[in-house]
From TrEMBL:
<dbReference type="InterPro" id="IPR002881">
    <property type="entry name" value="DUF58"/>
</dbReference>
<dbReference type="Pfam" id="PF01882">
    <property type="entry name" value="DUF58"/>
</dbReference>
<keyword id="KW-0812">Transmembrane</keyword>
<feature type="transmembrane region" description="Helical">
    <location>
        <begin position="49"/>
        <end position="67"/>
    </location>
</feature>
<protein>
    <recommendedName>
        <fullName>DUF58 domain-containing protein</fullName>
    </recommendedName>
</protein>
<feature type="region of interest" description="Disordered">
    <location>
        <begin position="437"/>
        <end position="463"/>
    </location>
</feature>
<keyword id="KW-1133">Transmembrane helix</keyword>
<feature type="domain" description="DUF58">
    <location>
        <begin position="215"/>
        <end position="372"/>
    </location>
</feature>
<keyword id="KW-0472">Membrane</keyword>
Amino acid sequence: MSAQQNQSTENTDGRGGRLAGLTTRGRSFLAAGLAAMACGMLFDYKVLLRVGAMLTMLPLIAIMVLARTRYRVSCRRALEPARVGVGQEARVHLRLENVSRLPSGTLLVEDRVPYVLGSRPRFVLNKVEPNGRRRVVYRVRSDVRGRYLLGPLALRLADPFGLVELSRSFSAQHALTVTPQVHALPNAPVGQAWSGRGEGHATSVAAAGEDDIGTREYRHGDDLRRVHWRSTARTGELMVRREEQVWQSRATILLDTRAIAHRGDGPASSFEWAVSSAASIALHMARHGYAVRLLTETGQAVTAAAHDSSAVGLDFEGMLLDALAVVEMSNAATLAGANAMLRQGGGDSLVIAVLGDLSGDDASELARVRHSTTSGVAFAMDTASWLGGKPMAQAQARFVGSAQVLRVGGWRVVEVEPGDRLPELWELAARRGSGMSGSVGAAGTATPAAPAGPAGAEVGAAR
């Protein structure tokens, strides 16, 4: 997002002056003056009395001067860009303008930013002439994804002696979205060969029959040459052929966000690896013509444009990244919600799951919900390895057993360990799919598959 698309203008009035605006130096002058005046009257020492009066009057005069000063400052903030990836920098542009008729004093500018973006930027602006402008730029970056508010901007006006300081704050805030790291994946297909966009006439005919395909009721203005006489005779109503439609393959990405399924802390945790992988896979599939739906274990779609063929035109990528920037771990114990959604199907030709630690029951249920016409790819994370050291034998046995259950259910399983890179794992999943496909026997060995039609399913091979 460009700077001109994320900006606001506000005014702040510099009138006002109270004893609360005294700085430490101003309070010291006032206290010293009062003490000197008291001592001068007590000891009848006129020189000390004059000195005390001068010290007392100086901060009071400074307050009066600033109180009578009318200055109005306009501020405009712009982010460039307003959405960045983890570890990338964003530039924040501030433009301050003195819209009053009098020059301002020295301005101390401080913008409030969350600590994860770095220290608060502070600037000193010398006297700003009437209608004068000052521009400042600072950079922010974060190694932690999320949505962070910048602002409000605070201004402090001080007198030349530093005795009084008046603070004014703007109210506008702007959001900076730090998205998960996205990896560029190779163009190796992990789904069916017919994936992506293409003409769906042959597939639809095979499912519905030539007499029923592509017909609808006649509407005023339809070309009579498009009348489908067989359907008209059967239904008793005038039917016309539809225009040939475009088929779009659908892919569902399942992201396991259960807190009990992940290990590690911070950016190096297994959960962050899963979020980054889900973002990379979803964007990769969307760019290759798939209608993408991103689900969590609760069964809720992460993006509002999920499974919408027009999502790409509605900035699907931006909505997806914004949603994943703020996704958090859930308290769910099982994958029941996601299994229910996958069991319903919905025309998915490919399901890709990024999974944490699975129990035997979760793996068995997930293996059963895959449809026979759907390719399933599971990136199974050995989350016990994220704790460092050698995983316990029990955890390792559960991981191996869960992966085997998924393979028996027809899933193509790719094991993930700390340090593994998603592009390499993606190529591995593609090689396994092209090297051996078919039904998986009870022992987990793949048997040759019969030649599949355009809608044939491609299943996984044992690792």
